[in-house]
Design goal:
Elements lengths: L1 E5 L5 H11 L4 E4 L11 H4 L7 E4 L2 E4 L1 H11 L14 H27 L8 H21 L11 H13 L9 H11 L2 H6 L20
Helix pairs in contact: 1-3, 1-6, 4-5, 4-6
């Protein structure tokens, strides 16, 4: 039994995308982006009230990077992982977890633009700082791309970083990063990516959120 607990448009999208890439049978439990995640029965499953949470037989696994490693080790024949001893193992691990480095900045920007409902709660300074920090992480991906994928062939590293870039694209224009933009086009063309997208706007009601102007 495999069951994914998921909120459309959030970081759990990377686990959903990976499950589709692995072509596995699984149950999907979907939640709205609200306090439901902090209430029972989900709170007993994941006390932090965050997604993703993956149930596999008797295991409850949280943290998207851990889920990625677990699934790739559980289903090695798919070739989406890089096992110990593989020459790409270290780079694979770095990219799988670099997705969270990107996402910490998209989370801050999502809070400012989406989660804070009153204008007086939002900070133009934080918006600009986090957008610049986010752009810096995208420059790292741009510099790391030497071919069609992050490694010699498509892997779960592309899934994790690809989902993070999906979220980042709502706050930073990808045109400034031509190699990354071309790579992300290839990610968007994948059937599993398209299946993992929200049905409707999901978390983001706009295609792009520009930072507010800083006060004079």
């Amino acid at each position: 039994m495999i069951r994914l607990h998921h909120c459309p448009g959030t970081r759990s999208m990377r686990s959903l995308w990976l499950l589709y890439e692995l072509d596995l049978d699984f149950d999907l439990v979907t939640y709205p982006f609200d306090k439901t995640l902090r209430e029972e029965p989900y709170r007993s499953l994941n006390p932090t009230g965050r997604v993703p949470t993956l149930e596999v037989d008797d295991h409850v696994i949280t943290e998207s990077g851990a889920i990625t490693e677990f699934l790739c080790e559980r289903f090695p024949d798919a070739g989406l992982g890089r096992p110990p001893g593989n020459p790409e193992r270290v780079d694979w691990l770095i990219w799988v977890h670099f997705a969270e480095t990107i996402s910490q900045h998209t989370a801050a920007l999502t809070q400012q633009h989406v989660a804070l409902y009153e204008d007086h709660m939002r900070s133009p300074i934080i918006m600009h700082l986090e957008a610049k920090r986010l752009a810096k992480t995208l420059r790292t991906v741009e510099a790391g791309l030497q071919g069609d994928y992050l490694l010699s062939s498509f892997s779960a590293a592309d899934v994790g970083v690809g989902q993070a870039v999906y979220m980042a694209s709502h706050f930073v224009e990808l045109a400034a990063f031509p190699k990354l933009a071309g790579w992300f086009d290839r990610m968007q063309a994948r059937e599993a990516y398209r299946k993992a997208l929200p049905d409707g706007p999901g978390l983001y009601a706009e295609d792009f959120y520009a930072p507010w102007d800083l006060p004079a």
